[in-house]
Design the sequence.
């Protein structure tokens, strides 16, 4: 359970195919030329993710295989396995009395104590993902990459394909990149698909369901340019567009309907989001090599037709005091506005909007990441990398929409998480 409500975590682990391809300097696309005649290159890693207060935890082993062939051709295959457990906010607001919630299956319930953020503690899932791509020159100056991806969870199935064309100009100092990806997702929530904005029913009774499964389609497109400014400096600019259509709700998320005077919860209803979403992102990267060290800065501007606008600023410095090891501290700042249909709660007796969600990922908040990577390089060409990151968010704990008892409670479930990763390349 939780293929959708775990979306935030998965974004930390993987991104849309086009964005991933565009975020790496296009000069690296020529790596296949150096791989000709080599055996398999293997990149194995294990990532551990933990949120504070006994919320979501995950362990993710990943193995990536690359084989170079003559003629600048290359095969890439990646296997990922996620195992997740813990508790996650269900969208309802805290209140001053105990609250009882029906689990998604409809056959059981759980109780949240007064003043506590309602968390669904049954979050558990396993995801298997396979990605593959084939890299093939097209003429002397172009490189075509064709790929596919498959991902399966208990309540979620995703199948997709992608293509990327990189074209060099200006004595290979300029590279234009065009990418396209198509993904088809099927959602089969535990207990069935809830009727949007219907009231949660008591455990053991007939639940408000409209079917067993839904689907959505995602089309991503990207265009980018990478420019070598000097032997030590390059820059990159990408624009990406993502069109989402179909079932975009989180079937496990609720909204509280509260008393207009006291703010006490009267009932809980299931969310409803628009069935389309257009997302735009502009990404800029600047990378400069010193004698041994490398400093990188990047900025990403995002906006969509849901009213969400975000800014991301990142800074990395790779310090290499010797040929055998290196350190790379990083810092990243993120800020976003809330979606047009985000609501802390709905008010009893007032008209119910057509679209509404209390998902904290759609509200306005700031995020800050600190991290450090440390790598050792061995004489046989192998490399061991350790990574540690800490991420925290801060939202409005007491928004102006708070009513009655809500004014004395924390209405934004701040997130604090830690990521530890061990990676070995050989």
Sequence:
């Amino acid at each position: 359970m939780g293929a959708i409500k775990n979306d935030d975590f998965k974004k930390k682990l993987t991104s849309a195919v086009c964005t991933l391809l565009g975020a790496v300097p296009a000069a690296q696309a020529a790596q296949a030329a150096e791989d000709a005649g080599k055996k398999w290159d293997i990149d194995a890693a294990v990532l551990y993710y933990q949120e504070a207060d006994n919320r979501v935890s995950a362990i993710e082993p990943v193995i990536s295989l690359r084989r170079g062939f003559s003629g600048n051709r290359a095969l890439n295959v990646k296997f990922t396995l996620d195992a997740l457990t813990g508790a996650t906010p269900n969208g309802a607001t805290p209140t001053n009395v105990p609250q009882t919630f029906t689990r998604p299956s409809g056959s059981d319930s759980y109780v949240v104590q007064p003043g506590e953020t309602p968390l669904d503690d049954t979050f558990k899932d396993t995801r298997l993902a396979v990605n593959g791509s084939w890299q093939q020159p097209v003429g002397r100056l172009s490189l075509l990459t064709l790929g596919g991806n498959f991902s399966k969870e208990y309540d979620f199935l995703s199948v997709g394909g992608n293509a990327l064309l990189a074209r060099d100009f200006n004595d290979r100092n300029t590279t234009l990149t065009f990418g396209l990806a198509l993904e088809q997702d099927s959602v089969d929530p535990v207990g069935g698909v809830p009727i949007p904005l219907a009231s949660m029913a008591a455990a053991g009774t007939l639940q408000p369901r409209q079917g067993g499964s839904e689907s959505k389609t995602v089309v991503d497109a990207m265009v980018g340019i990478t420019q070598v400014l000097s032997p030590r400096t390059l820059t990159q600019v990408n624009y990406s567009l993502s069109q989402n259509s179909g079932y975009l709700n989180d079937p496990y998320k609720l909204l509280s309907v509260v008393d207009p005077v006291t703010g006490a919860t009267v009932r809980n209803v299931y969310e409803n989001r628009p069935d389309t979403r257009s997302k735009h992102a502009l990404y800029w990267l600047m990378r400069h090599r010193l004698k041994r060290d490398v400093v990188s800065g990047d900025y990403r501007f995002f906006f969509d037709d849901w009213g969400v606008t975000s800014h991301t600023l990142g800074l990395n410095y790779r310090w290499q005091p010797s040929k055998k090891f290196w350190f790379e501290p990083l810092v990243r700042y993120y800020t976003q506005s809330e979606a047009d249909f985000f609501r802390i709660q709905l008010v009893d007796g007032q008209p119910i909007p057509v679209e509404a969600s209390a998902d904290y990922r759609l509200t306005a908040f700031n995020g800050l990441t600190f991290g450090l990577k440390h790598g050792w390089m061995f004489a046989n060409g192998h490399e061991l990398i350790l990574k540690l990151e800490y991420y925290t968010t801060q939202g409005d704990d007491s928004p102006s929409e708070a009513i009655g008892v809500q004014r004395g409670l924390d209405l934004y479930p701040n997130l604090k998480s830690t990521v530890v990763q061990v990676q070995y390349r050989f």
In short: The two ends are 36 Å apart (CA to CA).
